[in-house]
Amino acid sequence: MRAKTETDSDDPRVVLETAYGKYGDDLYRYALMILTDHSAAEDAVQTAFMKTLKLGKRMLQIASLSDYLRIAVRNTCYAMIKKQRRLDNELKTKRVRPILEKLDEGSNEDERASIEQALCTLPVEQREVLHMKIYEGKTFEEIARMVGIPADTAASRYRYALGKLRQILGSEYQREDNRHES
To answer: What is the architecture, at CATH level 2, of domain 95-180?
Structure first.
């Protein structure tokens, strides 16, 4: 079975270039949510694409190139986190913008800064699930498959994240819990 692409090319570079055009921005946002650093997210996506390119013609046998690339980006992000232990302290100060519009569309700058700060206090695993659920609209089953955890664990991580955000920010954000659980 061939990779599902918009090209019938047998050239892995052409296939991957097409995939980058189609999935690159989404993969970047996904990496950004995990790493909370723009340049690190760019590096993670580039690294994942380069590793995929090294597969050569074997890449053409991948059933779902988009799923493969998402997993490659995720694995690269977590490898980067492990490599840089000092990232824990940096995560608390980095800004996390991609999901703010979804969390609180009508907030002022002070509220947005509070939300960003609260998001940065969450463990990376909870931020990842929160991003996939709210920003990407994934179900817990889809998240579980992509992350390699049980669906119940994905749901728990999501609920813990929302609970911590509610605790930090107050009950005005409880509506997100009700809007996105399912």
So the answer is: Orthogonal Bundle (1.10)
| Number of CB atoms found within 10 A of residue 81's CB | 17
Counted residue by residue, the chain has a size of 182
Report the distance separating Cα 168 and Cα 118, nearest Å: 7
Per-position DSSP letters for 56-107, written without gaps between them: GGGGGG-S-HHHHHHHHHHHHHHHHHHH-TTHHHHHTTS---TTHHHH-TT-
* Angle at alpha carbon of residue 40, lines to 20 and 132, rounded to 5°: 65
Other beta carbons within 10 Å of 124:
17
pLDDT tens-place values along the chain, 182 residues long: 444 445 578 898 999 999 999 999 999 999 999 998 899 999 999 999 999 999 999 998 899 999 999 999 999 999 988 877 554 444 433 434 445 554 555 566 777 777 778 888 899 999 899 888 888 888 999 999 999 999 999 999 998 988 888 888 774 444 444 555 54
- Predicted TM-score (pTM) of the model is 0.53
Q: How far is CA 39 from CA 44, 106, 116, 122, 154, in A?
A: 9, 29, 18, 21, 27
Q: Where are the domains of the chain?
A: 12-83, 95-180
DSSP 135: I
Q: Is 132 helix (H, G, I), strand (E, B) or coil?
A: helix
